[in-house]
Write a structure and sequence with these properties.
By secondary structure, this protein is an alpha/beta fold. It contains three helices and eight strands. The chain has two domains: 1-36; 40-144, no CATH class.
């Protein structure tokens, strides 16, 4: 029969391994750090409106995640949002004339950047900038425009009064 000391040592070692695996699992699930980060390259794009896009948001092509947003800055000259994206190096054959747009996952989901590849034989590389961008559609602005138009039509003033005077 095992001595009491060996059993306690075994239980202590088991608990220590369990705690370490829970910590590793917590970091892996949260995505705060990666033990073995994949190699990537940085690409930027300038948007007029990013509508709540956050750092660590996914970057996708055809619904497949190829990277993530690493930083968002404001250009002090053009006042556009500069979005820096880390693209995994295994996706190195993205044409440099591709376009980027900000979309929402579902009606009220989080925003993500979608890249639409084009046909150029030159590819994006570290430091490239995506020239063609489509800004996010802000749901609040669309609802405000709809209410404004409905309010003008309901009052009977659709702009014809000014033409008659």
């Amino acid at each position: 029969m095992l001595s009491q000391r060996w059993i306690e040592s075994f239980v202590g070692l088991f608990l220590l391994l369990a705690i370490i695996s829970l910590i590793v699992l917590a970091f892996k699930v949260s995505g705060l750090t990666s033990l073995f980060p994949e190699k990537s390259y940085t690409v930027t794009a300038a948007f007029d409106e990013i509508a709540g896009l956050k750092a660590r948001a996914p970057v996708k092509i055809g619904g497949v995640q190829i990277g993530e947003v690493s930083a968002i800055e404001l250009d002090p000259v053009t006042f556009k949002a500069i979005v820096k994206m880390k693209i995994l190096t295994k996706f190195k054959d993205i044409p440099d004339d591709s376009s980027a747009g900000i979309f929402t996952a579902g009606l009220l989901g989080d925003n993500y950047v979608a890249i639409t590849p084009m046909y150029d034989s030159n590819f994006l590389h570290n430091g490239s900038q995506i020239q063609i961008t489509r800004s996010a559609m802000v749901l609040e602005k669309l609802i405000g425009q709809l209410i404004y138009k409905l309010g003008n039509n309901a009052s009977g003033n659709n702009g014809d009064d000014h033409a008659k005077k």
